[in-house]
Design brief:
single chain, alpha+beta, 4-stranded antiparallel beta sheet, 3-stranded antiparallel beta sheet, 2 helices
């Protein structure tokens, strides 16, 4: 059994199989239907009880506890990832268009490489040589950063020589 204390200013509710955390930075929803645990919310605590008593059940319980803690931390402080734009020959330009990030002029390619922005509350902005990704959901922020990094993956060339691309260099709590 694991417990997570809910701080003041954060509200955690259970809507069907979804666990919802609401705070000053927004709302984070997580579907826990397939996870073999029982979640109860009483007073200012979230209690997580496993179905069994094996080592695996304890591991699942601790995983869910970690997910709930990151949800609470996200709606309270938020998460920020920073991605650096690195190029040697062709100057790369990065533009945010709706729910997509377009990486233009990568290795002189005519068409832009596109990466999706995950989640509704995730904000992406370009600041000079950096792309800053902010949001209340750790999952959405980190997946967006991974999508941007993955969109500039170089194929059929030696990656130790051709270092152009966008790379995550900073993961922080707080927006």
């Amino acid at each position: 059994m694991a417990e997570v204390k809910i701080p003041a200013g954060v509200k955690v509710t259970k809507e069907g199989s979804y666990l919802v955390a609401k705070g000053k930075l927004g709302t984070v929803k997580k579907d826990l239907l397939k996870v073999p645990v029982t979640i109860t919310i009483e007073n200012d605590k979230v209690t997580i009880k496993p179905y069994g008593k094996r080592k695996r059940d304890l591991a699942v319980t601790n995983t869910v506890r970690s997910i709930v803690q990151s949800m609470i931390k996200g709606v309270e402080k938020g998460y920020t990832y920073k991605v650096k734009v690195i190029f040697a020959h062709f100057p790369i330009s990065v533009k945010v268009k709706g729910k997509e990030v377009h990486v233009e002029n990568f290795f002189g390619e005519r068409s832009a490489r596109v990466a999706r922005i995950q989640g509704d509350a995730t904000k992406v902005e370009v600041q000079g040589e950096d792309v800053v990704i902010k949001g209340p959901s750790l999952e959405d922020v980190s997946q967006t950063a991974a999508n941007i990094e993955q969109s500039t993956k170089i194929k059929d060339k030696d990656q130790r020589v051709f270092l152009d691309g966008l790379y995550v260099y900073s993961r922080e709590e707080g927006m």
